[in-house]
Amino acid sequence: MHLQLGELSTIIISSAEVAKEVMHEHDIIFASRPKLLAINIISYNATSIAFSPYGDYWRQLRKICTVELLSQKRVQTFRSIREEAVSNMIRAIALQEGSVVNLSKEVSSLTYSIIAQAAFGKKSNYQEEFISTAVDLAQLVSGFNLAEMYPSVKILERISGMRQKVERTHRRLDEILENILTEHREKRAQPGKGEGKEDLVDVLLNVQKSGEFGAPLTDSNLKAVILDIFSAGGETSSTAAQWTMLEMIKNPGVMRRAQEEIREVIGERGNVDESRIHELKYLQAVIKEAMRLHPPLPLLLPRECSEQCEIHGYEIPAKARVIINAWAIGRDPKRWTEPENFIPERFLDSEIDFRGTNFGYIPFGAGRRVCPGISFALPNVELMLAQLLYCFDWKLPGELKLQPLDMTERFGLAVRPKHDVQLIPISHNPSGKYSGKRIDP
């Protein structure tokens, strides 16, 4: 589908076959990002992993991300952070047993806390301030902006006030990030203080100091990467967890089967051990199915055509924007049986995964621009859902039982349910482990 959005020629891809041409056969031609006003500001002039143009700098960042920041080995070092944070959430929910719990707020707070601790360490003085400001900035840039569609009409930037709002909030965030970098450098300069467990800022500072990945990285480059990981990882994990819980409430048979699996595997330990997650095949299928129906980014981040080319028999001009409609592809009746129904069983004994090798299922994208944070986001989602289903049975508040669940979407940095997920937890805890006090990080 071709759309003329203001001055911008935009092509929407809604089939897996054409998406494969764009993200596999002609991947290099479509590997760059278009320049976007608000995004350029918050990504430090498009120097983040998600938004930097395709080229040597992007390849350098991608290598740092996959080798140093978000490798499987590195993600495993944050296991204790995940387990501690999830345990604290379970304890907080247990104190509200029988009452309505805003699960959206609980899982959102959890995911941001995990990422902030992984990025900055457990004892950063700026964690809460950073989370609050970063969320404000994400909400600001996710709204509609007419100036983006008419980039040559500069007066629209002033009329909308978008540039001033984004720059003002970004300055606040930049000051916080500067303080975090200073905090880490001062700690590392103290004898014996830089030898403990590394967080992501420590890793980036090591890379910056070594210079082994190519061109020197500036502090602005480090800040762009930190903000990228936080924004993408937090929203993706939180959104996936909310939709998965909502779909299971709508399909109680699915929830029962997932709970039976978890409780059989875990037994009466009172705690889901992350090392056992790989045994929860049905839960993993449930998460995949939820992300088929509700990809966090229904429209993947835009790509820019670097040169004129032919896709599926159509000429695509240079500089055209191409957007992959992951939502439509995930519901294509040509590829999926009963595409509008929630059927996790379709993923049992299936080789389809999250990494974009099957172009009919691309919640994290595919090709060179596939999201590098999959290995970081998924353990958060799997562990929190496993614990929520192991420790509690769930039911709707009385006033919602007699009406169909509202599955309307709310657009933002990621697409969440329009209304917060509000549920009542009923404890199912053989060992009584979660009746105690909170564990402080």
UniProtKB/TrEMBL annotation:
Its main location: membrane. GO terms for biological process: alkaloid biosynthetic process. It is found in: Membrane. It comes from the Eukaryota. Signal peptide: none annotated. Heme binds at residue 371. Keywords: Heme, Iron, Membrane, Metal-binding, Monooxygenase, Oxidoreductase, Transmembrane, Transmembrane helix. GO terms for cellular component: membrane. Pfam families: p450. The keyword Metal-binding applies. This is Uncharacterized protein. It comes from Coffea canephora.
